[in-house]
Write a structure and sequence with these properties.
The protein folds into 2 domains: about 15-100, Immunoglobulin-like, CATH 2.60.40; about 140-225 and about 245-435 and about 460-485 and about 505-740, Maltoporin, Chain A. It has a 22-stranded antiparallel beta barrel. The protein has 6 helices and 45 strands. By secondary structure, it is mostly beta strands. The chain is globular and about 90 Å long.
């Protein structure tokens, strides 16, 4: 038997010399921080993987002498040869930063190629103000109708989203949308976010992400703040219409384990209106981050925001045509408001095992809001006018924990995530009142206390099988709605409970390194207003949205990337917010279908061209043909631009946004006019100084930024008139900027 054992031992030894083993490594940047979603390629077998949020990865079927390539949009390509040391221990690899280039975008089976577009856009087109953050999303257009005081009106995928009803927005896990808000469901005021603190913007269109819940129907937007800015700075901006902005950012601490910084801004402007806006906004933000030896990480940030403004409101076309007022005049110039928000956010990452980690976050936010509007002028009250006040005071808090696990399962190495969390909104004195000149309360129309709690859990798993990537997930959301009507003659606490399950499925097939096709199926939802739900006035408390996307990402040459999608989205119930009534009315079932088309072209490192075309057909399902148009829903939008950089110091660009004519009412008898606006920017930067200027509306287009079909009556008019009421868009506007970096 001895020869047999000897032969067997020799065979095992021989096989072990050539046996394949998994290669494990951590990818870090120059500061020792993990780089997530770097792509790792083994050319010999054309296999791929990517790093997780800790910068770690496992690559199976690796032999001694194999070469692997490590790539990332923001870092130089790195080649590594597998030696005996690498086979026996976890390797630490550091990448060098470099300017983002379209040629670095790699199409492979482990990644959704579409999600790389936002990083490229942000690098080539840095944002200059908080309003531009949302406009980084392809096909998304915003409109402002309170001079920068209110949250913007959002248009996306055939939706007039109002102020956020169908787009889920968050920053570092902190919800931006406000449920059961005094001025509209999902109200999302992003003005507390300084653009200089933003590191990443990611987005998705449609209801296909298990981690995104309420209001993620048309899509979602996720922002992440910087852990450590590149440098400290102080800047001053000066522009037309009494516009001035001063900002400062100070790096207080920066080493391989810790970082801390503080940033502040103060903005004032009178706007182009005849009645000065006297707009002012103050922001301050502070963040501390600490990393530990075992790659654990904790960060905490706090911010405070306050804003106050006057507004000229939406003006009727007939008042301008008759010469009663100019485009920048007002019927009631006592509109306006004030708001403030204070936030505290904690994020942590805890490693439990090499392939198992836990991400947790907790947040609390204090919010106050008061808005005076007059939509109908003298329709209801011919003596005092129809001005209303909407007001609330809210405490918002919650937490979320997500467990990420990468088990070794049949060689698939799936990414499995499971999360639980809750959000609670305690809204005090939600008010709607009839007022006069912002001073006198004529009548309280609605007043009450709202308590709304959303508890949820989700599971999400991604599997890679050769050229296929499968992502399957599911989510359960439970809601508790409580409302106390303070205008009721007797005490009455009204409540409702509701639960909804939303499944998701995403499939990607990578044909080759030039093209990837995908199919997405999912269900999402948007919740109704607590005040309406508690009264039992609606059948659909959490109306669902069912969607499907079929699309392709194509990269015929390294410098050109094309993406396209055919999509369909059906809602169980559309929401129509009636501002002067303080309620959300059911709008019936709706369906939208459309085409998204985008192109990115970078023939040289310093030259970048992009464009996005979005076509949609939004219709009501239950109404007759010709009476089934969805008011203000866009049928065609287009955005794009050109950026040129020279010697890494000079940067200039021009961009445009276009929205076509669209129905303003159900029978399309009133039209909201389309527009095209061009903006220009240029800047020059040295080691310590930066100087530049921006020109908005280069061609001085007379455009209508926000429009509504409204029935109103002017003073001394015998009859009311329904027609377009609009806020005029900013005319030619130039602003200069100078800054010092240190």
């Amino acid at each position: 038997m001895k020869p047999v054992y000897t032969t067997l031992l020799m065979f095992i030894t021989f096989c072990s010399l050539f046996a394949q083993s998994p290669f494990k490594a951590s990818i870090l940047d120059s500061n020792g921080l993990p780089i997530d979603y770097a792509t790792i390629t083994l050319p010999r077998s054309n296999t791929h993987t990517h790093t997780d949020e800790k910068g770690n990865f496992n690559l199976e079927s690796v032999f001694l002498g194999d070469s692997i390539a490590i790539s990332h949009l923001s870092y130089e390509l790195f080649w590594f040869i597998i030696d005996e040391t690498a086979m026996n221990e976890t390797k630490i690899i550091r990448l060098k930063e470099r300017a983002i280039n379209l040629q670095q975008v790699v199409i492979n089976p482990n990644k959704d190629a579409q999600k790389k577009i936002s990083a490229l856009d942000l690098s080539m087109n840095p944002v200059n103000n908080s309003q531009e953050l949302l406009q980084m999303i392809p096909g998304l257009i915003i409109g402002q109708h309170a001079g920068g005081g209110k949250a913007e009106q959002i248009f996306l995928r055939g939706f007039d989203v109002d102020h956020g009803t169908d787009v889920n927005i968050s920053i570092d896990g902190l919800p931006v949308n406000m449920v059961s808000h005094a001025h509209g469901q999902g109200y999302a005021d992003m003005h507390f976010i300084m653009p200089e603190i933003i590191d990443q913007i990611s987005y998705g269109k449609g209801p296909y992400e298990a981690s995104k819940g309420n209001m993620a129907t048309a899509g979602y937007v996720t922002l992440n703040t910087k852990d450590r800015p590149e440098n400290s700075f102080v800047t001053s901006e000066l522009g037309m219409f009494g516009t001035q902005r001063n900002a400062i950012l100070l790096n207080l601490l920066s080493n391989s384990k810790e970082s801390a910084y503080i940033a502040s801004e103060y903005l004032t402007t009178d706007g182009p209106f005849e009645s000065k806006q006297a707009f002012n906004r103050f922001n301050t933000f502070a963040k501390y981050t600490k990393s530990f030896e075992n790659q654990d990480k904790i960060s905490v940030w706090a911010s405070h925001f306050t804003s106050r403004w006057n507004a000229s409101g939406q003006v009727p076309e007939r008042a301008i045509a008759s010469g009663l007022i100019t485009r920048f005049g007002a019927i009631d110039d006592t509109e306006g408001g004030q708001t403030k928000r204070t936030n505290l956010v904690l994020n942590s990452l805890k490693n439990l095992r090499p392939n198992l980690f836990l991400k947790s976050r907790a947040f609390i936010s204090s919010y106050d809001f008061e808005l005076f509007s007059n939509f109908t002028f003298f329709l209801e009250d011919q003596e005092n006018g129809d001005q209303i006040r909407q007001k609330e005071s809210r405490i918002l808090y919650g937490f979320e924990s997500i467990l990420s696990y990468q088990p070794e399962f049949l060689g698939l190495n799936p990414d499995v995530k499971g999360g639980i969390g809750f959000r609670h909104d305690d809204v005090n004195d939600v008010e709607l009142s009839h007022t006069l000149n912002r001073k006198t309360t004529l009548e309280q129309l609605a007043l009450g206390q709202v308590n709304e709690t959303n508890t949820y859990a989700f599971v999400d798993a991604t599997f890679n099988l050769s050229k296929w990537m499968f992502n399957v997930g599911g989510r359960i959301d439970a809601f508790k709605f409580i409302y106390e009507n303070d205008l009721s003659p007797s005490y009455q606490l009204q409540s409702q409970d509701k639960l909804i399950f939303t499944p998701k499925l995403n499939v990607h097939y990578t044909i080759n390194n030039k093209s990837q096709v995908f199919a997405k199926f999912g269900r999402g939802f948007h919740s109704n207003d607590t005040r309406v739900i508690a009264n039992g006035q609606v059948d659909h408390i959490l109306p669902a949205a069912n969607g499907i996307d079929l699309g392709m990402v194509y990269k015929p040459i390294p410098s050109l990337m094309i993406n396209t999608a055919l999509w369909y989205l059906e809602l169980e119930q559309e929401f129509v917010y009636v501002g002067d009534g303080g309620i959300v009315e059911p709008g019936g079932r709706t369906a939208r279908k459309g085409i998204d088309f985008g192109i990115r072209y970078q023939p040289k490192n310093n030259f970048f061209v992009y464009a996005d075309l979005n076509i949609a057909e939004p219709r009501s399902i239950d109404d007759a043909e010709g009476m089934n148009f969805i008011p203000l829903a866009p049928a065609l939008t287009c955005t794009g631009g050109i950026t040129y950089k020279f010697l890494k110091r000079f940067n200039t660009g021009i961009k445009f946004r276009h929205i076509a004519d669209r129905p303003a009412n159900e029978d399309n008898s009133i039209i909201a006019s389309g527009y095209t606006v061009l903006d220009f920017n240029t800047s020059f930067q040295t080691k310590h100084f930066t100087i530049g200027f921006d020109i908005n509306n280069v061609l001085n287009t007379a455009w209508k930024e926000t429009q509504f079909a409204t029935e109103s009556r002017l003073r001394n008019e015998a009859q009311s008139v329904e027609e377009i009421h609009f806020t005029p868009g900013t005319p030619f506007f130039i602003k200069g900027k100078i800054g010092y970096l240190f």
